[in-house]
Specification:
The structure is a single chain. With 619 residues, this protein is an alpha+beta fold. The chain folds into two domains: 188 residues, Galactose-binding domain-like (Jelly Rolls, Sandwich), CATH 2.60.120; 400 residues, TIM Barrel (Alpha-Beta Barrel), CATH 3.20.20.80. The strands form seven sheets. It has a six-stranded antiparallel sheet, with no helix packed on it. α5 packs parallel to α6, α6 runs parallel beside α7 and α8 packs parallel to α9. About 3% of the residues have low confidence.
């Protein structure tokens, strides 16, 4: 195993979100994995080259070559700065291996790094707020509570960095530096015998306390009055010079078509609002009163539940009963007929926060108020699925060769048109979400690209016939081969991408038509306010959530291809896990008790204030 010693200056390591003063690890040894060689560049950096013979080429980073480790027992976060020396994007992975941990149990993060670009991979390590003295059994939940005895000992730590290889093409990346940040969080240890019920009657984690937690029914009225006063003091958008759609009146006057469209202006893509003003879409997804958690078989999780005759239970049978704490809390706050007040408050909040778009999955009672531009949704284009697909990483792709596929798309497009055809408030239409393109198993000699071409061309033809004045915003690609991106760019007005990292980094293939991109989903979550897991991208605390939000949005503003980004989602997921798949993320702008996170609100207002001047003038 070859190795190389490296000394790195702290200034060479850009922080991922500029939220803490880092402590640099300025000297380390890089030991090559199988199928890998390492060397030192003229600038003193470690260069890692794949020989194309091993699936996971990379390096082990240690303080010296004798098997030494770092004492990171007081560290809460590790940052590894890398650069991609390949001529194509690489997914670069990093893991912190504490004492006794292997790559199966070590905290691991990755970043899709474009060719010849620098990125920082951020790895939270000791960030759990709670643990139990003995293991407890929690079913159908994505994030679980760790037992104290299972905690990793970061007093003996090292870092592994690698790329994935599925072919023989060599790859190259450099390790620029390693930093630590945040003090380790000392978790509150809860006796396992006292853990259940762990969800209080408001759907919150019962064993902790934090700012904004609801403790009694009267807290809803207090919080509502305080926020009403704040909203009254902030009636307008923090974005200056905007029209009723949120378009920029301080910019150039373009052709006003009465509908949203796209145009490239001075080398940058934009939405153009119905009045001909430049528009960048800053949105939030999932605008509805809902998100259920499973009750059947888990009633011991909950301190209190409403009677089974209550309307917030679905379905009515007892085999897989769900209930929504969000609905129960909104009923407590606004009364039994809470939906109109809930919808009204979304529009008031969005204007004050500088959010100018209702993202995907806004319910009719929200978007039909027509106070904020909205993305329309065809959620499942067809139930006819191609038998040559497995789930992959997403929903099964429709069988585009079946005549039923076009029939289904047309039926749903016509149903949508009956509600919003020629509505100037409609930003565009998303069709499907996170299809599992990587699950293709072959069939009839067709490739993934062939199927994608038929899929996107069919959807476009139907939409342009049934809803000709509205943009086709694509299928919100999460993971897909290059051929799918090419097909999407050929047929969509805007290519949509759900991208969960610290910074958006996807661009279209070089041979693709020049089209704009919108981020359909991104978020950051933390474990410091009653959550057992953070999110798709976990950060250390609420302050860092806000800082990372600003960093991500600004990166989109600075990219000439991006025309918007939408946060997932409006309200936190249940701490006991959503019924769909058990996700229990701290991903909301508001809690499930309808309390806004002040850190997110202030971050949104700050970035909204510079939305158009930063993008247009690049400042």
């Amino acid at each position: 195993m070859s190795s190389v010693a490296v000394t790195v200056l702290a200034a060479r390591v850009p922080p991922a979100s500029a939220v803490v003063a880092p402590q640099s690890v300025t000297h380390f040894i890089c030991q090559a994995r199988q199928g890998t060689e390492v060397s030192t560049s003229d600038g003193g950096l470690t260069v890692v080259r794949s020989l194309g013979t091993y699936g996971w080429p990379g390096v082990e980073i240690r303080p010296d070559g004798s098997g030494g480790t770092w004492d990171w027992s007081n560290v809460g976060e590790v940052k590894v700065c890398v650069s991609n020396g390949s001529d194509r994007a690489e997914q670069i992975y990093a893991a912190v291996l504490g004492g006794g941990a292997d790559l199966g149990t070590a905290p691991t993060r990755s970043s899709r790094v474009p060719a010849h670009v620098v990125r920082t991979i951020v790895i939270p390590i000791a960030d759990d707020a709670y643990s139990t003295d003995e293991p407890v059994s929690l079913e159908t939940m994505a994030g679980k509570i760790p037992a104290a005895k299972d905690r990793i000992d970061y007093g003996r730590s090292g870092v592994d960095v690698w790329i994935r290889r599925t072919d023989s093409r060599p790859g190259e990346f450099a390790v620029l530096g390693v930093e630590t940040a945040h003090p380790a969080r000392i978790p509150q240890v809860i006796p396992a015998a006292d853990f259940f019920p762990f969800v209080d009657k408001y759907g919150q984690f019962r064993h902790g306390d934090w700012p904004g937690k609801i403790h009694a029914d009267e807290d809803f009225a207090t919080q509502r009055a305080e926020e009403d006063a704040w909203l009254a003091a902030h009636p307008g958008s923090p974005t200056p010079d905007v029209d009723e759609y949120g378009g920029w009146t301080g910019g150039p006057q373009l052709e006003a078509t009465g509908f949203f469209r796209t145009e490239k202006v001075d080398g940058k893509w934009w939405f153009v609002d119905p009045k001909g003003h430049l528009f960048f879409s800053l949105g939030i997804d999932c605008l509805y009163a809902g998100t259920e958690t499973k009750v059947t078989g888990r009633t011991h999780y909950f301190e209190e539940l409403p009677g089974f005759g209550h309307g917030i239970y679905t379905p009515p049978d007892t085999t897989n009963r769900m209930m929504s704490f969000i609905c129960w809390n909104l009923e407590r706050k606004y009364g039994e007929n809470f939906k109109p007040l809930f919808a009204e408050n979304i529009h008031r909040r969005f204007k004050a926060w500088g959010i100018n778009t209702l993202g995907n999955w806004a319910h009719d009672y929200v978007w039909t108020l027509r106070r904020t531009p909205y993305a329309a949704t065809i959620n499942f284009s067809s139930n006819v699925r191609n038998p040559a697909w497995t789930n992959g990483r997403g929903r099964l792709v429709p069988d585009v060769n079946s005549p039923q596929f076009e029939i289904d798309v047309r039926r749903q497009a016509e149903a949508l048109a009956a509600k919003m055809r020629d509505d100037p408030w409609c930003l565009g239409i998303f069709v499907d979400n996170e299809l599992g393109w990587q699950g293709w198993q072959g069939g009839d000699g067709e490739s993934v690209g062939d199927i994608a071409e038929k899929y996107y061309s069919t959807v476009r033809a139907v939409l342009k016939e049934v809803l000709p004045n509205h943009l086709y915003l694509g299928s919100r690609i999460h993971f897909a081969p290059e051929s799918v991106w090419l097909a999407s760019a050929r047929h969509c007005d805007v290519v949509s991408n759900n991208f969960y990292e610290h910074e958006p980094s996807y661009d279209l293939p070089a041979e693709a038509p020049d089209k704009p991109i919108i981020i359909g989903e991104f978020h950051f979550g933390a474990k410091d306010r009653g959550f057992l897991t953070g999110g798709c991208v976990t950060v250390f605390d609420q302050k860092e959530r806000g800082e990372c939000f600003k960093h991500y949005v600004r990166a989109c503003l600075d990219n000439p291809r991006y025309v918007g980004c939408h946060w997932f989602q409006y309200q936190d997921q249940p701490v006991s896990g959503r019924g769909l798949d058990g996700e229990n993320y701290n991903d909301g702008f508001v809690t499930m008790c309808d309390v806004p996170y002040p850190e997110m609100v202030e971050a949104s207002r700050e970035v909204a204030a510079e939305l158009y001047t930063r993008r247009f003038f690049n400042r």
